[in-house]
């Protein structure tokens, strides 16, 4: 690598992608001097030097009908990214997850002779199997964060590496149980149940009222209810929902989600990164998912796997209970939680099996492997 500096284009359209990419950026900045970062990403990536081309909040949508409502915005972004890549010719494009949009950008970048490293493989094994062809045609290398994905990509002659899961480096609780309790004014002698409604406004609107309805009935049984508030959701929206559906004694935990996951007896998590974080930490939990009726109907016709929770998919077993769409209601959530509380042996079995998952995701280290891949690609193409 003889160039004095390199320009990397990034595209992370979701909060989890912003977090995972920032871990990689930190490692790159330490090892490669004078890196220039531009593209799309959130506050964490910007803290490591990303020069954003668009406001990050506009990208954080999910579901078929939700994305369709923003189609004009995405088409405009696509045109402007194409013009940017053509004018700037970055040395490498690192596209992070977000396959519905990023695979289109991969084709544009490849046509413009900008090499593409795809970080966090699209879940083609669940749905849209044709994405494998797009990876083979437009991407130089795929960095997989789930152990089984490389073997599947090898079958289709897609160059890939398993780089470990970034949560292994991201999860590092700062407070012990007493410190956590003192910070949030909690009684250390009480039993805590934790609810994670999501990191997007749309998720909060759908999930938080359901969770609060279930939690209200559990308070009478002597449990302290903790609800996680992600920094990425609208503060006013969260407050409005709490005012409408909340109850006395509810504890809102702003930040410190890994401590909350660790110290609660049981958790209820909206399907996504939080379920894998909770599984890595080792706390038994329910996995819940609810979307718009149109998105669900479309997804049910396209998705080819029976499980939705990443921990269950990785372990290839129905370890953690899943409540999806119409089954995701307060009655069922309460029933599943009480069943686990009444069967401590079952909860302990869950903890033991989650150790296997933690081991499989902990090596290799993502930041180290991504640094190696980036240097190889820059050496080859820059």
Descriptive tags:
382 residues; Rossmann fold; alpha/beta
Describe this structure in words.
The chain is an alpha/beta fold and 382 residues long. The chain folds into two domains: 7-164 and 363-381, 3-Layer(aba) Sandwich (Rossmann fold); 177-361, 3-Layer(aba) Sandwich (Rossmann fold). The protein contains 18 helices and 13 strands. The protein has helices at 15-31, 43-47, 64-68, 71-88, 99-111, 131-138, 149-155, 167-170, 177-184, 201-219, 235-245, 257-263, 273-281, 293-302, 310-315, 330-342, 344-362, 366-381, and strands at residues 7-12, 36-40, 50-52, 92-96, 116-119, 141-144, 160-162, 191-196, 223-229, 251-254, 266-270, 285-289, 322-324. The strands form two sheets. Strands 3-2-1-4-5-6-7 form a seven-stranded parallel beta sheet, sandwiched between helices. The protein has a six-stranded parallel beta sheet with strand order 10-9-8-11-12-13, sandwiched between helices. Helix 5 links the parallel strand 4 and strand 5 (116-119).
């Amino acid at each position: 690598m003889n160039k004095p500096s390199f320009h990397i284009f990034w595209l992370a359209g979701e909060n989890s992608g912003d977090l995972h990419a920032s871990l990689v950026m930190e490692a790159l900045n330490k090892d490669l001097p004078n890196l220039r970062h531009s593209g799309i990403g959130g506050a964490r990536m910007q803290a490591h030097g990303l020069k954003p081309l668009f406001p990050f909040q506009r990208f954080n949508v999910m579901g078929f009908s939700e994305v369709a409502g923003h189609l004009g915005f995405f088409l405009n972004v696509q045109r402007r990214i194409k013009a940017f890549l053509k004018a700037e010719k970055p040395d490498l494009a690192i596209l992070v997850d977000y396959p519905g949009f990023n695979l289109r950008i991969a084709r544009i970048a490849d046509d413009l002779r900008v090499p593409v490293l795809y970080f966090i493989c699209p879940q083609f094994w669940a749905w849209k199997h044709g994405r494998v062809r797009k990876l083979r045609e437009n991407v130089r290398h795929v960095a997989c964060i789930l152990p089984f994905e490389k073997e599947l990509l090898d079958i289709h002659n897609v160059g890939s590496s398993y780089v470990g899961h970034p949560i292994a480096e991201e999860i590092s609780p700062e407070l012990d149980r007493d410190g956590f309790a003192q910070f949030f004014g909690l009684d250390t002698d009480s039993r805590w149940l934790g609810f994670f409604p999501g990191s997007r406004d749309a998720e909060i609107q759908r999930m938080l009222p359901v969770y609060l309805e279930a939690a209200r009935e559990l308070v009478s049984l002597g449990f302290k209810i903790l609800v996680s508030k992600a920094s990425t959701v609208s503060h006013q929206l969260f407050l409005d929902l709490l005012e409408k559906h909340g109850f006395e004694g509810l504890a809102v935990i702003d930040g410190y989600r890994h401590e909350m996951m660790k110290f609660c007896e049981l958790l209820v998590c909206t399907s996504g990164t939080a379920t894998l974080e909770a599984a890595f930490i080792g706390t038994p939990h329910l996995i819940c998912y609810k979307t718009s009726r149109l998105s669900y109907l479309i997804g049910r016709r396209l998705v080819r796997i029976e499980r939705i929770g990443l921990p269950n998919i990785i372990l290839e077993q129905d370890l953690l209970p899943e409540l999806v769409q119409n089954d995701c209601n307060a009655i069922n959530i309460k029933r599943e939680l009480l069943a686990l509380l009444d069967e401590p042996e079952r909860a302990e079995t869950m903890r033991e099996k989650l150790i296997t998952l933690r081991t499989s995701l902990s090596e290799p280290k993502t930041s180290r492997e991504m640094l190696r891949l980036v240097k190889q690609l820059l050496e080859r193409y820059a």
